[in-house]
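User: structure tokens for this one?
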Amino acid sequence: MRKAVIFDVDGVIVFSEKVYQQRRALFFEKNGLSVPQKVQERFVGSNAQDMFEQLIPDDRRKREELLQAYKEFRQHYPIDYKEMFNPDILPTLNGLVNRGLRLAVASSGPLKNIYRILEVNQIKDYFELVTSGEMFARSKPNPEIYQYTVSHLELQPSECLVIEDSALGIEAARRANLSVAALKSHQFVIDQSQATYHIDSTKQLLTLV
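Assistant:
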């Protein structure tokens, strides 16, 4: 019996990945980095640290400098998270709560940004636990973020259902022995073949719990 649903954020709660890609592309251009579109798409569901480790694997000093520069760059690139809010989320959350399900967030993004997204869309109080990839040495597809979340909910993996969109996130959840509902992306072609279920709307979660 399912007792909790764990939500990814980007690509699930907010359709933000396209804007993030545009932001990354502008930063790459400003800093003389040539990153093809296909490589960019690999970063969907990842975080900045892992992204730069892939782009610059052999020069730690340069990688750290770019990572810091990118963090500062993001501060001057405002994003309207209300505009990209998934309209199906609120009825989904209400439906799950009415059925007695517990709710949590497990996102690769920075904790500050996760809370900003939840607060600006007035849904923070639905979630009893919020977990960020920056809390761990490695983010998705490492399963630790999901193992941590399930452990802190004091549940078993079989009692939880994850909602994800990215291949990295789906892999992380599956490696943590969790069932995953993959939300179809309308922004990218994503390999979601590892998912347990495939859905077109988060409202379909109500049929899976």
